Predict the 3D structure of the following.
Amino acid sequence: MNRQMAQKLAARLPQILLAVVALVLMARTDRFFTPTTLGSILKLASIVGVLAAGQTFALIGGGFDLSQGAALGLVAAATAWLSTQGVPAPALVVFALGLGAFLGSINGVFVATARTNAFVTTLSTLLIFRGTTFALLNGHPIANVRVFRLLDEGLTLGTTLVAWRSVVFLSFVGIAWVILRRTVFGQHLYATGGNAEAARLAGIRTSYVKVASFALSGMSAGLAAVLLLSWVRLAKPDTGTGYELDAIAACVVGGVSLQGGAGSVIGAAFGCLLLQSLGTLITMSRFPDEYRNLVTGAVILTFAATDALARRSDRR
Amino acid sequence: MTSVRLLPRVALHEISKAFAGAPALRGVDFDVLPGEIHALCGENGAGKSTLMNVLGGVIRPDHGKIEIDGRDVIFRGPADALEQGVAVIHQELSLVPCLTVAENLYLGHEPRLGPWIRRNVMFRKADAILERLGFKVSSRAKVANLPIGTRQLVEIAKALSWAAKVLVLDEPTAALSRAEVERLFEALADLKKQHIAIVYISHHLDEVNEIADRVTVLRDGRRVGTWLARDLGTDRLIQQMLGQEVAIAEKSMRPQEESSICWRVTEARTDTLNGVDLSVRTGEIVGLTGLAGAGHEQLASCAFGSEHLTSGRMGLLGEPYQPNHPRHAITRGVASVPGDRRRSGLIPTLDIADNLTLSILDQAQRRFFLDRTAMRTLAKRWCDTFEVARKSLTQGILTLSGGNQQKVLMARWVATSPKFLILNDPTRGIDVKTRESIHQRVEALAEAGLGVLLVTSDTQELVRLADRVVVLREGRVAAELGRLGISEETIVAAMIGAGA
């Protein structure tokens, strides 16, 4: 048992080293480990973090969701428009989650029943959702969406302000963890992603499981849309563009397998926080922001390579 | 015959290799002389394939050294081994079907002029090799159009195009017809004369006796011994491989005539099935077999709801039964242990406990939540019942041996307390001891009143277990053999339609 643990740790050595190096760098940066900075990292990570938690469902089930950012944009546009019609905030939240889940389940139905490839399916729906958003907004942004302004505040813990967005993010991760690890559905999702044919022959309704995993991914985009609106108070045709890639990157860094069937939502959340910390670090160290992409790319590749190498040694 | 004082072409000394702490080879010595066929025998998991992979440079041993013509060498990869003259021909052939024979022979070392391939030179050299081997194959033929036996010969020619001095053949006759085997053996005899050293790995012990000069037997990663093939008969060879006698129990006697019908199908039709009637009584083991494509496997899938009949009726314990998904079948008390463990049985990313409890998660559910403690308790109980040899319940399922993986799958299904159990090839690729323990368990289940449908092409297994054997041919029942009529000969005759 201990030997197994040691082997697992050894396989993750480069990742651990990287995390340590990042921590040291952060410690050397003035004012990094202050409640204010950490609080702001958590707040900045919350939107992509929610998407990453949703993406985890899609990935574990053996899928892939490229349409998250576009779904976020569409939900944000529709919700913003409804708010101009005077719909109250609680109803809008329910609407946003519902619409997100519906958009996600479109992906799921195609992947599970027509058996289209998840990559191609969600790439297509990305374009469709984005196009619909443009049509809905008629090219004009809806500004000054103040309906979720309560969410832009926070609760004071001691002297620190913890943003509600951070609380929502952490709660969503917690709920996702419970669903994945403490429900029969979660267990079925892992099995389906690990070997769909074996899961079906074990009596699991793999089609439902797949649709549900995509619906959850879409629902997370709906929740992220609410968080984003509370922050920027603006819905544009290109809102959320590229967010899905950040979410997938967070999952990869957090050790969620792109082959399906393995990984945890806690890992994805940490991956997201690590990437955000690096971003903040670069900004604080007065490097030009362009370096952010370079560093982020290098970090993701390191993690992916480590994972692939560890997998290879597993297989003898 | 070869003289013992000859310098071995390749010699392995004290080779050890462990995977994740589990030793696969423990200090094995092995050598092949020029012009010799040295057979390597052993049961599944004895270490044959690991040793072969060491020879082929796929695996680097933890300890020990490799010598070629008396020189120490280290193989950094398969390309290294090939360069040193060791060519491994795997069971799954590695030819590119859409290329010609010559292109395959020179794949990776094409005769070239700068960036261009000198095609004429390539074809001429390929023809020379094929001629030297006496193979009547055109170097311009597309590999996709060749029969499997000829492809095997092309694979050998390919090894020789690399100027291989040592040829390692892994189960070369597995897919060959008898005539093709003869041709292969002639080719091997020719190669011997050209002082090529040949390592021959096979489960077919009569073949080993026929062509090998020496035989080395491996067991549990150790070398049991090396003998001259003519000194070692097939019987002694088996004994050395098993190391112990496995007591195969007599078929148990079960009363059947008066028991009720457990499962039945009438007029079953699909694209392959052509009107099959079949029934299984409670407490009865019915064997269902046939050649590939005869429809027996599909009928089993239909009985479990993973495929569907186009017409026909099924009944289960006197009630109509029409499963449209395995889920339905399970709720009605039907279980099906899949045949291909890796493809349709195991979830490779999950551990033993997860794999075992996959179909009984409702037993560990408390309201909306899954009780992980209850899950582990269930897994432990069933692992103990089925005597799954393990280090812990949380180890990955693929770290278990094939026999123990199969036990986990059996346990998964027996744990659903089925009334009707479908077994697909339950002992494929499993050692004799585990096989017998699985057989005894199946008998115990039948005695407890389960109806068992045993779908297998393993005739020995049918003889050992079945009360009745139904043989399908081209989607129809070709023969139904009662208890006294079951023998390997009668089953095979019915399968191929001889003497009917």
